[in-house]
Design goal:
With 514 residues, the protein is mainly alpha-helical. The protein is 64% helix and 1% strand. Helix 3 crosses helix 4.
Length: 514
Amino acid sequence: MTSLYETCAYETAGGGTEMLVKCVANDLDKTNSSRATSYHSWFLIICGALIFFMQAGFAMLCAGCVRKKNVQNSMLKNLLDACGAAVAFFAVGYAFAFGETDSTGFTFLGKRNFFLTGDVNQGFWFFEFAFSATAVTIVAGTLAERCQMVAYLLYSLVLTGFVYPVVAHAVWSSNGYLSAFAQDPFRGIGTIDFAGSGVVHTTGGTTALIATYILGARRGRFHDNRGRLLPTPRTIHGHSMALQLMGTMVLWFGWYGFNCGSALLLEVEDTGKVGALAAVNTSLAAACGCFTSLFTHLFLEEKRTGEIKFDLGKAMNGALAALVAITAPCGTVENWAAVAIGSIAGIVYLFSSSALVYFRLDDAVDAVPVHLANGIWGLLATGLFTSPGRLMDAFGTEEHVGWFYELGRGSTDATLLGNQCLAIIFIMGWVSVTMLPFFLWLNFMGWFRAGSLEELVGLDHSCMRERPNYLEEEGDGFSDVGTGVERGPPKFDLPVETSASESEQERALTGTQE
């Protein structure tokens, strides 16, 4: 194999030392650039795989939060999330979100690269596909135990193929009117959503809120069997806390692909520094969110009942809420700010979860408090806590930083905070305008909610022809909120064959009793 020096010596024969040195330097630059591009693609693939692995976390979390009679149905929906997202994002979603346009200014949608035609970075497509699949699967848990399969399939395709791409284009594309990556960003800075508190989680959370409002609560959650309003809502317990905890930890692990991997898309030299900051901030926020949610709930319960109660569910959801909140500012805030953002996120989760019950909206996995409420908080926190130094590292500017830092400068400039608020209004407005009519149409067609009998026996049996689990379970999963009083199994007049043991048969024959 001919060395680089030998190749250049042959090509510049008779040209002198200066020509030889220039040839070697140019070839080395080309080699290094090619290697950097290759490494960048590999890192995108690895981080995309971490994000995609979050599908397993969502599946475990959802499975643990539902009753046994609905586990397989929930698992199938989680699997179809990924499949539907892949097909829809391949066909039209990527083109709408990041496809080439004829303009260098702001556009509403991309116009090219449908079915990945043209010049498409395959590694970038895979990375963004994993994001889109995450946005879709957020809704799965909210609608668990009562949503028809056909409705879920249709919603998955619509959200990934059209609704989510419009949001992604507006905030992340170089032609998006809210994008910080635009040549001339809106109001000089655009919207900073580092890894998707708004694009992914607020989009998915808003969709979940609309869907659960139209779909209605699970049977027995807020009304009795005759449709009368219960004075105290019942809690429907999931069948496995172990699965819920495993799902939470898998999601936390995958979040490093979310937040750290997004640094690869920045147009700065030292992306590793920004990625490392994102990793530390992600860890700190999640830990603090877990603590504040757990101990705030413990304090409130002790004041209400006089008993100390450690609630694993509140701790897990507090950590997830903090992960959602830190997703937008993870690369632009200091470590102390991540602690504050995560701590507040745990409290935001608790009160938004209580508000959901107050308005009698049924969310099987608390996805709306976790993803919508804290997706909004994450965008606002970015407008408050973004520091000049971290903004320079990530976006190459120190103008229009977080409002708290602007106040420290003696300025009242709230440009970034205002842009963040505008992004919240746009995302929630766009999702509402598109998904509300869609869900109303599904409901009108009778394709949205499963029948009462199907819900009673379980979707595993009604949709997948599995043996009803009420013959095996000891309870129906109901309890009064705050009391932990379990209610007995539903009463069914079903003939069940029983066989007496040999000792019972012997006593029956002899007429003796113990």
